[in-house]
């Protein structure tokens, strides 16, 4: 298990520039895979995907390679619905305890990219 402070994606895995949640406050994410549901926060987001940070252990029921549906919601935005594929699941240590990270690649990057721009724009204006 790695420390969350040490969590960095390998640069060669990055397909697009990341925006980290502390830059856009912390909208929450409701993620659904089959019958499992989790609520977390955006750890980082880009045009091609996002990473969700979750507290509860039920993220361990999620499977790499499976389809996941997400609803991103916050006080300054309209709800954003995104579908993608889970590409990585990690458990990391933080000062607040153990966290789960779920990396998701968007199914429709073009549509998701437009929604990400709207999301970032909304939070940038409200800051």
Notes on the protein architecture:
The protein has about 130 residues and is mainly β. The chain has one domain (about 20-120): Beta Barrel (Thrombin, subunit H), CATH 2.40.10. The protein has one helix at about 110-125, and strands at about 1-5, 20, 30-35, 35-45, 50-55, 65-75, 80-95, 95-105. It has a six-stranded antiparallel barrel with strand order 3-4-5-8-7-6. It is globular.
Query: In CATH's first tier, which class applies?
Result: Mainly Beta
| Total count of domains | 1
Q: Give helix % range.
A: 10-25%
Alpha carbon gap, first and last residue: 34 Å
Alpha plus pi helix count: 1
Q: How are the strands of the biggest sheet laid out side by side? A: 3-4-5-8-7-6
Strand content: over 45%
Mean pLDDT over all positions:
77
Organism: Leptospira broomii serovar Hurstbridge str. 5399
Pfam family, one: PilZ
InterPro entries: PilZ_domain
Domain PilZ: 12-114
Summarize it:
The protein is mainly beta and 127 residues long. The chain has one helix at 109-126, and strands at 2-3, 19-20, 28-33, 36-45, 49-54, 67-73, 80-94, 97-106.
